[in-house]
Amino acid sequence: MDWITTVDHKKIAILYLWAGGLFFGIGGLEAILIRIQLIKPMNTFLDAQTFNELITMHGTTMIFLGVMPVIFALMNAVIPLQIGARDVAFPFLNALGFWTFLFGGVLLNLSWIMGGAPDAGWTSYTPLSTIEYSGTHGVDFYTIGLQIAGLGTLIGGINFLATIITMRAPGMSFMRMPMFVWASFITSAIILFAFPAITVGLVLLTFDRILGANFFDTSAGGNSVLWQHIFWIFGHPEVYILILPAFGIISEVIPTFARKRLFGYSSMVFATILIAFLGFMVWAHHMFTTGLGPVANALFSVSTMLIAVPTGIKIFNWLFTMWGGQVRFTSPNLFAVGFIPTFTMGGVTGVMLASAPADFQFHDTYFVVAHFHYVIVGGLVLGLFAGLHYWWPKMFGRMLSETLGKWTFWTFIIGFHLTFFVQHFLGLMGMQRRVFTYLPNQQFDLLNLISTVGAGLMGVGMLIFLTNIFLTSRKPADAPDDPWEDGRTLEWAIPSPPPEYNFKQTPLVRGLDAFWKEKTSGHKTMTPAEPVGPIHMPSATILPFLMSVGIFIAGLGFMFSRDDFGNAFMGFMFNHYLVTAIGLVITFGSMLLRSLYDDHGWHIEPEELEGR
Amino acid sequence: MMKTWQAGKRLLPMTAALGLILAGCGREDLSVLRPQGPAAESSFDLMKLSITIMIVVLLIVFSIAAYVLVRFRRKPDQREIPEQVEGSFKLEVLWTVIPLILVVVLAVPTVKAVFAAGNDHSNDKNAIKVKVTGHQYWWEFQYTDYGVTTAQDLVIPAGKDIAFELSTKDVLHSFWVPSLSGKMDTNPDGTTNRFSFSAPNEGVYRGKCAELCGPSHGFMEFKVKSVSEAEFEKWVKSMKSPAVLPEDPALAETFKSQCLTCHAVGDMPDLSSAPNLTGIGSRESVAGILLNDDTGVDGEPVLENLKTWLHDTPGVKPGNKMPDPKKDMGLSDEEIDGIAEFLAGYTLD
């Protein structure tokens, strides 16, 4: 009950982590099944339809429900601490964001047991995703599930923007913010502009499918290529929504374990902003073979290549942060150090793909599959591993086992390169992506086998990580405040895990790497910016949960509104939109309740603070 | 200036070596790395250039990383705090400018090649015009100037520019012959695409559908047969010769009433709801994936393949639109075998 009603950012972080972890596990299993099917030519382990459902759900799950929530978990856990705040700007909204994400994700995955998962690819290109060519409810689960989950992401993004703009501790100017906060800030801004685009697209597709509209139907005056534009004008920025937080994590971990401040801080900030800006300018590089013509192709080629410049700045700044430092190979730092060359490899293939005439060959082949897995798995997932190992003691008060952490790193990264490096060559040798099997004697066999073995090894790495979590959770929570000893930012100045109010007294920030600055000037703790006084706390509430349940019910009701149930009562309820109405009444009723009932929260009194 | 030239000189043999290594990858009739025509050649040149640049970048990053990680490892007795360096304006400008130069080096030939690839031959009198239509899960090729329609095997005269007009009857597909050219999507009417390529050498090349189009997406393959000009003319002529029907009148009736409602043969009107069957006995494959090979290395003889296909159409190509001859059309095993034998014998001279 405590977990359902919580509005504490640290608990919501943990909720995001478990829910994200669960979906990540589902997406991982889907990946393993895909790789087993492709282990040899003409394999019959899976049938074609199931395979297409698996690739669709693997992509959708991993992007929207697997890695995004884990990013949000870290952002929730760390941002308020790093800026010296007591919570996020809108704790109620924070809870609402989590629950809508969770119910959206649950709705999407219900498709496995409710008559057909989406099967048109995670990009759901029309006309394949229209009711004519994808007749099950699969794509409806996709459009409605993602709209609900996307709501949560948008709410979260806005919340972080407000938090970072308004709630920084005294003295923390923008140019004194930790890089992770900067990255999260820019990420949230991208979310603010990109997610409405996909939401509009999903609404239009829902209307086409459920209400018989013709936005994407060429024969009725629509345009099927329109979907690709809408999808990618969200889809490309989405890539940066994913990778910028990883950049932020790496920029925290490397300075800590090199015992040096981040090299070129201001150019890092500048590069992050530039990447976000360019990220919105390049969506059509996913569409070089759609037939946009040479002018568009040339413009999008060149603008895409430009992204290499700010990204290169970041890579070299990280390397030179370690230059002259004292590098310690703890497990978080192993992941961070492994990230640099791996991500660079994904980056350079990105520049290769940007060259449109060469992309005519790369596009929709395993070369592309290899490229984006190098970026998303080799970049983002390694970054998340670094972040999780790094902040685990702060989040849970327990140190993860270093030995198991190193085992996780080595099995995962070796498995990763084994899986995806050879896929570059598969693509160049003529293997197109999203094929459920392939004919023998095309020289695809050996490389596919290697790739599948690698995927198995990555799975082993994940299992070791889970074991590590399990064993750690049975140990006493005795992590010190600054467990890595060289912590630089504010979160290491308070206990692990932090008390629910985070900072007894808001700290005074006197420079970049505030805590490090105090430590090197001989202080043990931060200088407070205020006297000890009563701390205002928001009340726990179940309303966010109820509002999400309402949207979930409404979504299901809308989706099945045209079905024939062969049952008078069910038919009556669904066909007259009564189920949808019930769901909406729950949601709007909860909103009304929230507006009418004034909850001022509660206070923790100074005596209580001292009594600890 | 001298130094950059020296670096360039060192890169040349590297590019050459790289080209050789890459050329060893894959089948000649399939691999992007073994281009067989000018269009694929131009993509390959850009690939070689970009791979060379990228490998240089990787080598620099990897060596700095390796050096840093070995040299600046924390030693057990290190207690003093390392100097906190704010950054270096010079260095940061350096690694902004060098990537910019590299981008320009790649961007210039890219833009050039983009416009070269955009020049289509649809108004070229010497080019062969082919209308490609994608269907779930087969390819239709219409030679508008010759009044010939065929499926699955695209026959072209060697060395001639082929001007393609691409569209689809259902969902998006992508037309791709890796060793001859990059791919191009087939969009629904209204967004028809054009492009062109040529195959200087005679031979058979493997083509694929590159855009997810349903369960049998992976099986939507086709072949490009590049033949001599004389042979091409001969092929066109025999494609236009009158339709052939089975000799047995009962079987001919079955074939007419059951198959020709969707398929067409010879000079019969083509409804294009199913592949044109003219001369199917001399094609490279049945249904695009059952390769016809009398030696049995890559596939079975054409008769065996036709029997496999007709006895189990949904099994061979899941989700395809052809009704099952036995279950849906009520044909007997003998009739199916009879039609398979007739089709296997329906060859072009």
UniProtKB/TrEMBL annotation, chain B:
Its EC number is 7.1.1.9. InterPro entries: CcO_II, CcO_II-like_C, Copper_CuA, Cupredoxin, CuRO_CcO_Caa3_II, Cyt_c-like_dom, Cyt_c-like_dom_sf, Cyt_c_oxidase_su2. One of its GO terms (biological process) is ATP synthesis coupled electron transport. This is Cytochrome c oxidase subunit 2. Subunits I and II form the functional core of the enzyme complex. Electrons originating in cytochrome c are transferred via heme a and Cu(A) to the binuclear center formed by heme a3 and Cu(B). Keywords: Copper, Electron transport, Heme, Iron, Membrane, Metal-binding, Respiratory chain, Translocase, Transmembrane, Transmembrane helix, Transport. The chain crosses the membrane at residues 51-72, 93-115. GO terms for cellular component: plasma membrane. GO terms for molecular function: copper ion binding; cytochrome-c oxidase activity; heme binding; oxidoreductase activity. The keyword Membrane applies. Residues 246-347 form the Cytochrome c domain. It is found in: Cell membrane; Membrane. Belongs to the cytochrome c oxidase subunit 2 family. Residues 125-238 form the Cytochrome oxidase subunit II copper A binding domain.
